Amino acid sequence: MKGFGYWVLMALCMAWPLTACEGDDDELKTPDHTEQPDDTPADSTGTTTDSVAVTPPVEWVDSMEYCCMRDSNRIYGMLYQNPLASNIRPAVILSHSSSLTHEAMAGYALMLARRGYVAYCFDFCGGSTDSKSDGDTDDMTLFTEVEDLRAVVNAVKKLGFVDRQRVYLMGSSQGGLVSALLADEEPDAFAGMVLFYPAFNIPDLVSQFAGMGQWGDSFGLSQKYVDALKGFDVWKHVGTFPHPVCIVHGTADIIVDISYSEKAGACYPHAELHRIQGANHGFNAANYGSMGNMMGMKDYDDVVMPIVYDFLGRQ
């Protein structure tokens, strides 16, 4: 999937019926919407709750290009770290949404590095026409992105300053689905996972729109992408990851209905679902690339990131 057509496609979609798994999601607790995040979270009505202990941010962060390989494909990425943090640090690997690049996740990576994490964001091979990684968009599938992420994880774990027992996945939309698929395949490789509006609905969407001939093709669904998802039941491949999962989803999301995250949250044995009141598909303009600023997307990062800091800090 690529280009603005992808977003149009998603916005036109209706929510699909779901059969809930057993279990209930956690109660929503989000911080006040302030200019800078503080350590006193509040629920959706603005009532303060117990303070959350987080690592004080440090402004000095090193960033560097760091590339790795998946077969013959070079994967471009950026590594962020706080050089004043302890020698061995936990790592967070960030996977971007469809049609975007690592730049959509760079702001999150920087914020995490300021908290003492090693943070790495990268371009999926063929994931965008703007990708700095090898590969053509026509060759990208959901499963080539899983393999890209697997290669990235292996490379990051080889870094001498990374705590291999505390590696976390963090992904948005399609990147969230890719992260969830890999986590179920390699459950012992990760200490936890953060999913922003994960696109568990992609197989449903592909099934709905792929048979529409040229009209369907205009939305950027490559034949390889479509063929790879034929008969794929996402719920047979996600939901068993045994470690903590944090799902963050906007209540006004018109691209991935929040019911998909509600179902996922009920399937995972240790999941918490945070509903961000009024948020659409994306928590800041960067989630939409150049379209974000033109569309005047509202910024919810000062609500979302304290949730992430709290979750990671409890692991």
Question: What can you tell me about this protein's structure?
Answer:
- The protein has helices spanning 4-12, 103-114, 142-157, 174-185, 202-209, 213-217, 223-228, 258-267, 290-295, 301-313; strands at 30-31, 41-42, 62-65, 68-70, 73-75, 77-81, 89-95, 118-122, 162-172, 192-196, 245-250, 271-276.
- An eight-stranded mixed β-sheet has the order 3-6-8-7-9-10-11-12, with helices on both faces.
- It has ten helices and twelve strands.
- It has 315 residues and is of the alpha/beta class.
- The protein starts with a helix and ends with a helix.
- The model is unreliable at 1-54 (pLDDT under 50).
- The chain has one domain: Alpha/Beta hydrolase fold, catalytic domain (Rossmann fold, 3-Layer(aba) Sandwich).
Describe the secondary structure blueprint for this structure.
Layout: H1 4-12, E1 30-31, E2 41-42, E3 62-65, E4 68-70, E5 73-75, E6 77-81, E7 89-95, H2 103-114, E8 118-122, H3 142-157, E9 162-172, H4 174-185, E10 192-196, H5 202-209, H6 213-217, H7 223-228, E11 245-250, H8 258-267, E12 271-276, H9 290-295, H10 301-313
Parallel strand pairs: 7-8, 7-9, 9-10, 10-11, 11-12
Antiparallel strand pairs: 1-2, 3-6, 4-5, 6-8
Helix pairs in contact: 3-4
